[in-house]
Fold this sequence. Notes:
The protein is mainly alpha-helical. It has helices at residues 19-41, 48-56, 59-73, 81-96, 113-137, 142-161, 176-179, 189-207, 209-219, 221-226, 231-257, 268-278, 290-309, 315-339, and strands spanning 165-166, 260-261. It has a domain at 50-265.
Amino acid sequence: MSLVTKSAKPIGHKRSLSDEMFITMLVASVAVGIFLLASVLVPNFFQWQNLINLVTNNWAVISLGIGVTFLLVSGNFDLSVGGIVALSGVLSVWFVQSTGGVNALSTGLGMPYWLGVICALGGALAIGGLNALFVVRFRIPSIIVTLGTMMVARGIAQVITQGSQRNTNLPDEFGFLGNLTMFGTSIRFPVVLMAFMLIVAVIIERKMVFGRITYWIGANPIAATLSGIDKAKHVTYLYLFSSGIAGVVGILLSSEFKSGYSNRGMLMEFDALVIALLGGVAIAGGFGSVVGMFFGAIILAVVTSATTGLTLSPDWQFILKAVAVFLAIMTQTWALARRNR
């Protein structure tokens, strides 16, 4: 009598797809499926222009999602990006407003536009540096630190705008970048910049040592440290990277609307976190991708747009976002469990 043992996965078996690629393809399939479902339920939803609008109307959140994704992969949070968007936008307006305004909200520092933008970006990077200081040096949990700096950044913006907005005495070139169209089309510069940052982020993530180190730190920080990786320096760079992107987003939004508004970017930090989780980024670190985050943004955009098309109350959007996140995490966990069984 012979005993034959069958193995589900032979020794030496190699999968054609990594777990990350598998999850990314799963998220992409879900995004396509939800779009097709919305096309059936919502009149005139299935249009090429509508698909383009899903991306172009969400360029800011997708851009923020790049920095948030890298930090999540490293095992850290960044909830400060929404506050940085408000702060950098307000600073860019305040710095370039002329000094001869008729009231406090129309009086600024009178800087040249290029200098005002650089200084506003410096303010954003200062918040990123503050995040890194408390997370790396004082070892305070990142979710607590970045929640606090988000409120600090938005609070400074509210002080500068007195809880309102600054939109007068601006130089003519202030609204140029935010409304610049590219290649003779209606596609604006911020959307092209978002696409460029996505491509660069994918290259960093997949082809450069910096991206690999980010995954190593998130997957096993102790082993990464023992391997000689300077975790503190790397996480500092990640926070500066994320805050820099948020600063650029805030400056471009203020340019688009020609105003510095203290409530701009409200809840964007949570939307950026949601699209990263929808895209398969592990909240514990070490797993996920920027491409997955992008398709997570498409899922969120389709859900939001579909609820508007169905004339549902805006309050339902928050419930649907929560349901989408729960379902995405459960589906991804179940799919990976079956794959590795």
